[in-house]
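User: DoxX family protein, Methylobacterium komagatae:
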Amino acid sequence: MRWGLSGVYVFIGVVHLVATDAMLPLMPDWVPEPRLVIQATGLCELAGALGLLLPATRKAAAIGLALYAVCVYPANVKHAVEHIHIAGIPDSWWYHGPRLAFQPVFVWAALWAGGLIDWPFRRER
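Assistant: Predicted structure for DoxX family protein:
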């Protein structure tokens, strides 16, 4: 789970950095400096992905990635509700519905991969 989640966040982080302008329409109006925020979140995703793999930073990275997943939810909602077209991303509820429903799973996965929770898979002590 840790390696898979790290891979997902490396991919998403790179997308944030190389396609910043394409993601600008997703940012809610109340977000200050949206371009900078997208780039900063890309760097945070990369740092979180690496941190999740290192025992010394695993718990902090897990908390950061879980908080990140909560914080980007408004942009995901805006994308779905306002039907914002982004090249390469479907604009259908077949895409948006599962994406929005799956966001809490990303929060759980980060916390589980970081060893902060063990629900529902109990680890042996």
